[in-house]
């Protein structure tokens, strides 16, 4: 299926729908820079499914849609279609389209059928092409392959030639599945470890539950002891508090009598205080009035003085302001006179300025024309001199280049002749037959080592599976054993909690499952009775024969075994299923008979009935039956676990030996492969070197002949260049004319500059005078406003001065009397002496009153203290009563109010000493702490343990399945790696051979070869390139010229391409760094490849030689800014047309 055309609509700069036919042979794409040529290659990549945004020089995939120009709006949809020749279709044509719409993403189509991106990518991979194909070559790819490339950067060429486009994704998918399976296996193992820890935890929790029940019993006895001690202590405290309260009440009565006498004394002393206080208040009022009168007289005199000083200061300020305003008015009048004089001068100067400016302007224009004419003359002479110098330099360069080429040709001729002699000697030395024989021997050794490794691997895998099975069996047996032991321990703890008696029939009887409640309901407390004759209550064998079981029921004796003494009692008991059947049969019971249901509902012949059986008895019977079953199961589980452990140890021992054998086989196989690889490389190197030497000999002979011709041609070219250089005239005449013209130009420029400065000065002076005239008008107006304002302020200041003078006269009219202040001071002193005398009398009276009050307070405090003590005593009595009530309430809560039974519950004998409350609380606290230290106790540990063991078995089974899946995936990955390595090695050998041939053809000699850079991952190998063009030694590829790099890269690309040709090859300006000779070689190679007909070539170029070698040309134009179009011409048809038309024109 061949690609026949490209259809573009709205892709980047191609705003309109265009079609580029891609026909057999070579198709050239030409056009100026920036016209959109590279967009054609990007359109091909995009249409083939390229999804990396960076490949399209954008920030998002929607950037490939035409973005619009100044004349065109942006496009909403972009579409690229690639046409294929498909003979299987009716129209012989298949169009693969890719379409993108803004905000909607990409869609793909095969003709009219919608497809996926993966379908498109796979389609082009099957054709040997695709968006990442090595056949789509750009300048950047040349750089990546040769200049700064690593061996891994060249791996895509090897992958394309090996055809592993589909193999590598399969291997990556298998490797990903393997990693996921390994992770799942790790998770399963982690879950198993967690479940093992959980089983251990549940076992510990069961032990904690047993310990918890023991501690609960001790806590109950400790609580009974504490409550008994608290009850006795509270009763004693209540008696003592009551006696103390009676004594205190008598003391309170005596204190109340003393308080009444003191209160009478206090009242008499308090009655003498008010008259003295009234006299003191009158004396203080007189003193205050005298003081206030004296202060008023002094303040009035001070106020008059300060007011007079303030008025004098205000008059002085007004006088200063009047003087300042008068000065401002005089200054403004002077400014008006100066502005009038300046305005007259400006008017006089403006009379002659127009004529001066017009004259200066004319002189400037004349000088400018003169300078421009001289400048044109200088430019003409400079261009003439530059042209002459360039032609002379070109002639000299040709002379030098011709001489260099002639010398180089002679030197290369000598070098080639020396190299040819050395190569002939080297060809005699090389013999690849011995290396091939050694490689065959190493191959046989490697095959034998591989067979031994497969056998050891198979044996190891078999033993691993056996070990896994044995481990699974051992884990299952251990889980069963742990579950049974945990359940047995739980049953034992439960029986211990129920307090079973070993002699009781309940501990020895055997009951069928489901009949425990029926037996408990039938016998009730009699189950706790044993068969020991020494006991007060005992079951004996001398029972009277009973009436048998009731009609309509089954005898309970059929479901119970183990105690023969109960035979007659059980034979008289009938068992039915439901309570209704019990009630129905009860009417027909004979003396001694009983009937009971399966859930414990019992009726007796004498009318007695019980709704429920004794639950504890039923649980005890059920637990005893389960314990006997567990004993048998535990013995079997121990035997099974021991056998599984022995089997696992045996398999492990054999596995260790098998793994040691496997490691030895692997080392042997690795060494054999390394020896085989070394032998193969030696054979390949020998054959390659012999081929290289032969090719280099042929190339050297051709080069020797070519260099002889170049030597002759170089000497002739050098002589011709010398003759042309001698024919040039001397350059001194042109230099002299140029200097004269430059002198004339400089004089004209100076004259023009002077005229320009004069004109600018006159224009600036005229503009300044106009601006100053306008400023004078503004300043005159401002000065007039200042004069008017100064006059207004002077009038206002005169009014303010008169007002201040009038106020000053009023102040001076009323001075204060001279002796009024002294008289007021004497009156104050007299009032102060009277007030002091009254104050001393008041202090004496108040002291006597304070003594009486203190005595009353002390007596009242004593009474109050006694009353407060009474409250404390009453509170103490209440506290004792409350403590006694709390103790009784606690007894009711914990022991149902049985106060008299506390000593018995606590184990305290009558008359023995009681512990203290602190000691009892400490004992209880320690027991509670010990119980709390156990934490949350899981009473369902046995059930949860069984569930955990079941879940662990399921996870263990899943782990085995995942391990099997991992083994299969490892085998699949190894097989894919083996196939990939074989394909890569085969493809490398073919690429290396073709690259050697293409290098010699492109460079007309030299030597080059490839080296495979190995990697444990066959899909991660790389290619190292070694090349030496003719006459050069091996060196880093980055040190070669741009053209040599391009040819080496093209040789490498075409070598890969020839191994597995694709339907299309696009070369985007790969000839940019090549000279004409290299371009000629590249074009010859492209034409040769195109003639084979398997590949169609599209070449984007700027080189005229490349264009001339194309079968057809298409030009990309941008007549409309930002919009690309395509125009084409078939050169073969054009040549044919010219051949037909030439005779007609002749």
TrEMBL record:
RecF/RecN/SMC N-terminal domain sequence ranges: 3-1124
Alphabetical keyword list: ATP-binding, Coiled coil, Cytoplasm, DNA-binding, Nucleotide-binding
Compartment(s) of residence: Cytoplasm
Coiled coil segments of this chain: 175-212, 446-476, 780-894, 941-979
Record-level Gene Ontology MF annotations: ATP binding; ATP hydrolysis activity; DNA binding
GO biological process entries: chromosome condensation; chromosome segregation; DNA replication; sister chromatid cohesion
Superkingdom per UniProt: Bacteria
Segments passing through the bilayer: none
Record: residues binding ATP: 32-39
Gene Ontology, cellular component aspect: cytoplasm
Protein family according to the UniProt entry: Belongs to the SMC family.
HAMAP family: Smc_prok
Quaternary organization: Homodimer.
Task performed by this protein: Required for chromosome condensation and partitioning.
Domains: entry comment: Contains large globular domains required for ATP hydrolysis at each terminus and a third globular domain forming a flexible hinge near the middle of the molecule. These domains are separated by coiled-coil structures.
Annotated protein name in UniProt: Chromosome partition protein Smc
Organism expressing this protein natively: Methylobacterium hispanicum
High-level lineage: Bacteria, Pseudomonadati, Pseudomonadota, Alphaproteobacteria, Hyphomicrobiales
